[in-house]
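Re: the pair you flagged

First of the two:
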Amino acid sequence: MADTADPRTEPVDPADWSCPVPLRDHPVVVMGHGGGGALSAELVEHLFVPAYGNEALAGLRDSAEVALGGARLAFSTDSYVVRPLFFPGGGIGDLAVNGTVNDLAMSGARAAFLSCAFIVEEGTEMSVVRRVAQAIGTAAAAADVEVVTGDTKVVEAGHGDGVYVNTAGIGLIPEGVDIRPHRAAPGDVVIVSGPVGQHGVAILSVREGLEFGAEVCSDTAPLGGLVQAMLAVTPDLHALRDPTRGGLAAALNEIAAASGTGVVLSERALPVPEAVASACGFLGLDPLYVANEGRLVAFVPREHADAVLAAMHAHPQGTEAAVIGECVADHPGTVVARTALGGTRVVDLPLGEQLPRIC
């Protein structure tokens, strides 16, 4: 009988560890379609992209790059339906400004103008609407962006949840800057700008009335200044993403899939605050999948990584930036993490969402 290799001793390719799932057939929308995971990706890829079909949309970036009058513009829009409206560290007003400003920044653009639309439920106290509007004005000033147009609609009582906000923004992309998820390449160093998981845990603590030994505040913040400081070191940043819905895991998987490269993380290097780690352990959550609203992940060519990291440390939004991994040629499109015990696990795209209504 011919010798047969024992499969237990054969090298294992992490790309083979996840089982491809066929497109899920949902006759109705479920909450997971808005969670930033696999269901969201399917909704966009199989419904919206074919319906709109254009080159700017096909890139599926945080903000679209469009040309107008010889200028390269970044253009983005987002809607905010977070519950509760106010939470430790911020509120829906901060999110509405910072979220759109940050989406523009992920293309390297400096945000210039925002629009802001309110959908208000009948019966909402005027003091609540005023508080949200004032927070938007304060956050816009802090981000050095102007709210120049808007809209207000009121829906019947019971047909909303207090206040929903939509913001759209435009900004200029500097000459020589080409930041796209497709540009991530083997050898790139993966850097996160600070501790992860704070926003999602902050929302959950207020919504569910939970305490985790110390108050966890949202990390909501504008990242435009941090990105400009990084670009001052080198315009050759390959990819940027702010890991909001779906957390760091979703952002890394999107970049890995778009670029056709593998990503290897070191779990020991992940900056997870003790209170966030405790909360996630108590609730059975993985900090990699918990939303952030003031963090970015960067794929930086290795020759520029030390200088970019130093520039991040010198900026208020990057003082705790850390190298968390690298981009590799192996297992293309797959993200894996080396555990503290020396093992390796696949960090897959989440199916739906762990924490609903976080932005």
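Second of the two:
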Amino acid sequence: MVGRRRGARTGRGWDAKPSAPARPARPGDDPEGWSGPPEDEMPSARRPAGRFGSASGDGPAGDDGSPRAERAAKRQAQRDPHEVAREICLRQLAVRPRTRAELAAAMRAKDVADEVAEAVLDRYDEVGMIDDAAFSRAWVSSRHHGKGLASRALGQELRRRGVDAEVITEALAELDDETQAQTAYELAVRKLRTTRGEPDAVFRRVVGALARKGYPGGVAVRAVKDALAARSAEDAELAELLDPDLFDTPEQ
């Protein structure tokens, strides 16, 4: 019997290996390499999310009216209103200390109910997270030494922040007249260095600058006179010719 030649292919005869039985088709098989419909024909639930859009194909993620925005709005509506109020307050306090009135205004702007805001603010009062008296004392010290503001201007700023008049009075009591006079003098010295013009005009401009920082006219004039006298005898003589009462203004 003639042997089979090496390297010859097996035929279809008696010595051919039986082919493997065909595997039953399973769901998901890709006959003939088919990889599914084009992406634009896929159902929206299965379509991959684009770089700038949501998987639903309804436009950019988070746009008004999109499913994501609607879900976010629904979650917001379901949140505990006290939790929402606390979150608003904490964001405000993370920037700088706030008065009770400032926090109440921030919550009102976000449509927090008044009773919820009051409950949260009362709790913050109890634990010391808000303290209008401490806030006012720190404000007076910082703004006077940092900006040179006098009691009048400081009181106006605190009133705009909703601090009670009694609390303001107590805070301003720590700023005595002697301290304010010294601060006014130092401001006058610095302002005279940079103000140019006729002596009379310079005098009035510096006095006006101090008045805008809240110093009464008499205090401002005296500070400028002292600063001029320290600079030269000629300037001091000119300053003495002006009547301080002409610059005095009533308390506001």
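Residues 1-5, 7-18, 27-62 have pLDDT under 50 and may be disordered.

-B.
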